[in-house]
Design brief:
The chain is of the alpha/beta class. Helices cover 45% and strands 15% of the residues. Strands 3-2-1-4-5-6-7 form a seven-stranded parallel beta sheet, with helices on both faces. Helix 1 packs across helix 8, helix 3 (73-87) packs parallel to helix 4 and helix 4 packs parallel to helix 5 (161-181). The chain has one domain (14-247): Rossmann fold, CATH 3.40.50.720. Helix 1 (23-34) links the parallel strand 1 (14-18) and strand 2 (38-43). The chain has helices at residues 23-34, 46-58, 73-87, 111-138, 161-181, 199-207, 211-217, 227-238; strands at residues 14-18, 38-43, 62-67, 92-95, 143-148, 186-193, 249-252.
Length: 258
Amino acid sequence: MNSTITPGLLDGKVALITGAGRGIGAAAARLFAREGARVLLAARTESELRTVTEDIRSAGGTAEYVVCDLAESADIHAAVDRAVDRYGRLDVAFNNGAAIQPPGPMDRLEETAFDQLYAVNLRGPWLSMVAEVNAMRATAGLGAIVNNSSVGSLMGNPELPAYGALKRAVNSLTESAAITYGPEGIRVNAIAPGNTRTEMIRTWEQASPGLVERLEAATPLRRSAEPEEIAQAAAWLLSDRSSFVTGAVLRVDGGARA
């Protein structure tokens, strides 16, 4: 009897994941490796990166990490260069890393806090995409990028006004990049997660008690997402199985914005 081994979703690909030390990024790194990718993890906290990298290696996957602050252009370029130096190419990238703001109206957000949000949540993805596209051109020739946005970018967001505005700008960058680089065979999409069990949500819950309960009540599936459920959507968009999808902002929100 013949047996067929189905290749992984990202079999043979080299993947860069930012914000890979915890939450959705860590789940993505583990998932991408299980699906056959060689992964380069990037984030600010080395201890977290080391833990996730060791987990992947223990499970038989291939992983390296680099400490990277998305507010620093040199760090972003160094992370992309490290992926190419280590693995010889870059095929796909998940721009997941982000900074958060305290919940509250826009007039209570300090200017320095806004500047930091801008540096990480908008300039960071922009610089990342530029570096990633150049690396894909020079090595793989083709590629795919997924930016992590938020359902909070799809409507007015009085509790997280700066965060929502910057994520909406990421949606626009995603669409523009898809149009620009599509003729070269580089696809660019975004995912817009809803309420997910991450440290970010736990932090917001502390500042706004009852937040998770309210979010789950407003979600048709009546629960929060697990980080891996969000990572699964990113993996599909980065894979060849979504080969005719580009310029999309995919809601992964349990129906909250349906």
